[in-house]
Amino acid sequence: MKSTAVSRFTSFLFILPYLAAFCVFLLFPILYGVFISLHNFELLSTEHEFVGLANYIEIFTPGTYLSDIFFRGLWVTVQFVLYSVPLLIVVGLALAMLVNALPGKLRGLFRTFYFLPYALSASVMSVIWLMMFDTNAGFLNSLLMKLGIANVPWLTDTPWAWISLIITTLWWTIGFNMIIFINALNEVPEDYYEAASIDGANAWHKFTNITLPSIRPVMLFIMITSTIASFNIFAQPFLLTRGGPGDATKVLLINVLDQAFIRKEIGSASAMAIVMALLIIVISIVQFKLTSGRKGNA
Prior knowledge:
By secondary structure, this protein is mostly helical. The protein has one domain: MetI-like fold (Orthogonal Bundle). The protein contains 13 helices and two strands.
């Protein structure tokens, strides 16, 4: 009994640093955010009146300012999710298959090459792509001018602003998905492909009947994580387009930031952020259930 107690205490000591970090940096901010959202928490005021669910009710009351900026920002965010997530999955898988088909030394080189942008900070990424997309002096428009093509308003007009954000996001984050897909592809037994070749299956049949079913759990993971990351988009539109042109790329997190630090209304901004977090959780659960059900039916 004594040795069991010592073993449990030792195990607890191993998880204690993570538990402490979890409570300080995740659990406490979440609980404090919920607390703030239940108050009229103005940034420059020392009095924070308890208002209960008033901030949440205002979000879902049509015609109010809070409802307008929340659902307008949510729609812009949803557009980005719809544009980016399929590409993050398809391009990530395509790159993984291409890299996996390379010889050993080149494979490692290209893995590193494609993953490097993922290690960059948002500010560095933005500086790089501002230099690429700048209307007057950017690399892309300078190249187009040499080819006799008119300048493209990459960051100042639609749909170019959306195209710029998607290109930037793919370049910045696709390396992570590619590495995950490569690991999944390497776990598919070679015996399956050899048996399929003996049966006369072509490359497309192998891909649809062996590769995709074998990596489906990993694809589900990438779909959910890419959706969550895309819902949390902030750096790209904030640093590249400033939400423009107009409010065309002003995503929900930019509106939350404006509500908190420009209008100084932390309580309602916290309510917006919590509703957004709950929405992401619901969408992730729905994605998981639909994909799991499809797998079970197969």
